[in-house]
Design goal:
2 copies of one chain form a homodimer.
Chain A lengths: L4 H19 L4 H4 L10 H14 L1 H11 L12 H6 L4 H21 L4 H4 L2 E4 L3 E4 H25 L24
């Protein structure tokens, strides 16, 4: 399937409300536990999404439109969530994510991107040449990868509690597929 | 982690709103496409969740409380979604799921289950002896397995669109882990 900007916008606009409905005021058992050492809880994932809103998606889109592939993107700060989450509650993070996403989508819509703009190229520091279209599709798929992760991390907390049903629950067979 | 009924109820109560926020009025590209022959779209998954509300979770809980392990559960009808989805829109399914879940949780709360009730045993047609506690924990984990599936099915639609980023997106490395 080809990338469709309207479909991307539809999905990006819904993620904050979906995470809010799923996570707000849930017991911390679900939101603060992770899958073991050096893994992320849902709380940390929301911090990571905030970090992406600030430093990744729209800044990279602007770089492509301004500089094309003449300058590589800043590498994505995969520890940006540490700064974003310090001293905050999950409720604050959910609000912050929703606000940043709303502002970013407003800016993206205001660009009135035409099909030829979506073909413009940028330089990824390790992947090489990418297009604006691929960047925006990745933004949406990145939301889904973290929804996939959150559901897996939460299910992990009930691995023992479900008893013999564990073999029927696909999410408990998923061992994560993080980026290198 | 042990099973905690309050934590289970908290999660079960949120799933309908989370799916509603994610899926309602999304373009059909996201909601009606699947991962290929004999796989499920998000639309079908919501039908399957409705079928579980009607015929699986609370009926099995009632059987455990009434008959213990003297009578096996009815096998879960994994094609129940066909009947549930016929001629309906996704919006109708989301409403129906929310209504059924609300009624089921009301009934579950009204049972005022004590710790000793949660230890009561039932007979699963293929897994053998299970407890009421395991059944209720599985109900919650089953929501998560299908949220995990929905995010994977949706991300699959952008497998090509993300270009070289596909290797960084964990959800695109997940090949599903359905029950046999």
């Amino acid at each position: 399937m080809e990338h469709n900007l309207d479909h991307t916008l539809s999905l990006l606009a819904r993620t904050p409300a979906a995470l809010n409905a799923l996570l707000r005021d849930l017991p911390e058992t679900w939101t603060l536990r992770n899958e073991g050492e050096n893994t992320w809880s849902p709380f940390v994932v929301v911090g990571h999404l905030i970090s992406g809103e600030r430093t990744d998606w729209m800044p990279r889109a602007r770089m492509i439109l301004q500089f094309g592939d003449s300058r590589p993107f800043e590498p994505f700060d995969r520890l940006g969530h540490v700064r974003e989450t310090q001293g905050k509650s999950l409720g604050q993070l959910l609000d912050e994510f929703a606000g940043l996403r709303l502002a970013n989508l407003r800016e993206l819509r205001a660009l009135n991107l035409r099909p030829e703009d979506l073909k413009r190229r940028g330089q990824h520091p390790s992947l090489g040449t990418v297009t604006l279209s691929q960047l925006l599709a990745t933004w949406a798929a990145h939301d889904l990868t973290h929804l996939h992760q959150i559901s897996r991390v939460m299910a992990h907390q009930y691995r023992e509690a479900v008893g013999p049903w564990s073999r029927y629950l696909g999410v408990l067979q998923c061992h994560g597929h993080s980026a290198p």
